[in-house]
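Re-run requested by the PI after the first attempt was lost when the workstation crashed. Everything re-entered from the original request form. Ligand of interest: succinic acid.
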Amino acid sequence: MKTFLAICLFILTGISAALYFGFDHTSSSMQVQYDDEQEGLQDEVVIKFSHVVAENTPKGRAARRFASLVRNRTNGEVQVEIYPNGTLYNDQNEYQALKDGHIQMIAPATSKLTDRFPRWQVLDLPYAFPTYQAVEEAYQGLIGETLLEDLPQDQVRGLTFWYNGYKQITSSEKPLIHPSDFERTHFRIMPSPVIAKQFEALGASTSELPFNKTYTNLEVDFINGQENTFSNIYSKKLYQEQDYLTISNHGYLGYVVLMNEDFWKNLTPDHQEVIEQALTETTDWIRRHSIEMNDAHLREMKRSESLEVHYLSNQQKEHWKDRFQRVYRETEPIIGKTLMEEVTRIQETY
Ligand code: SIN
C-alpha cells in the first residue's frame, strides 16, 4: 500500500511540474514590450529582384533606382530587395524561379527568352536596329508589343524593356576585322540560336555559357572570345583576359523586365500604380543614361595598354552584313513574316 501511495505521489508531482514548467506562464502575465520597428511589418510587401550583372552597370543602377522610387513613394510599404551578380539565381534558373514564385522580379537579356519563345530571336538579328531610336521603336512598337503577348501563358507579366547597349566583340587570338579572322575561333554566347548562327556565318564555333562563367572560361582558354556591351565587358573585367576589342555594334543587348503574374494580381491597385509609374520613369532614365555609362566604360578600357581597340569601318561592316544574309533567311520562318517585315521597315527608316 505504501509503495502504491509513493507511486501516486511521484506521478502527481511529475504532472504538476510539467504543467508549471511546460508552458510559458510568463506570457500571460507579462505585457509584451512595444517595438516600433515591428510596426506594420506584416503589411510590408517584399519584391525580390534578382539579376546577373554588376551594380555599376545600366541594369544594376536602374534596378536600384526603381527600388528607391518604390520605397519612397509607398512610405516603405513596398520594399524591393535586389540580388545582383547572380548571387540568388543565375541566368539559367532565374526564369523558373520567377515562375515558381521564389522571386518576384527579374530583368533578363531578351536573348535568354529565345529558348522558351523562339520568335524573341528577332531582337538578336545581327545589324537589325542601326540606331538607338531604331532600338526604341522596336521595343515600344509592334515588335515589343507582339513579343510581350507570349508571356501570360507562363503566368509572367512583361512590364517594360530596359536598355543596355550595342554588343562588341573581344578576342585573345587576333584582331577580328574581316569575316575570315573568325575561322577556328570559339566564342561564348547567350542561349539564342540566332546568335549561334551569326558566329557560324562568320566561321566561328560557339558555346552557350552563363554570363558569370565567362571570365573563368576566357581565363582557362576554353573560349577565345565573347560578345557583349562595353559595360558588361568592363564591369566583369572580361577585357583583362582579352587582347583585342572590335567595335562592331553588330547587335543590341537589352532587357525585358518581368514580374510573377500572381504576385502582381495580389498587389493593391495603389501599389500597382506606384510600381508602374516608377518603372516608366526608370525606363526613361536607363534609355537616356545607358549610352553614357557604356561610353565611360569604353574610355576606362582604352586606358588598358594590353587591349588593342579596332573600330570597324562602314565598308568592313558591309562584309559582315553579306555573311549575315543567310542568318536572316534561316531565321525568318521562326520569327514570322510580320516581325521580319517590321525589322525591314525599321531598318529603312533609320
Ligand atoms: C546581362 O546583361 O544581363 C548579361 C548578358 C549576358 O549574359 O551576356
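Saved to the shared folder this time. Residues 42 and 77 are 10 Å apart (CA to CA).
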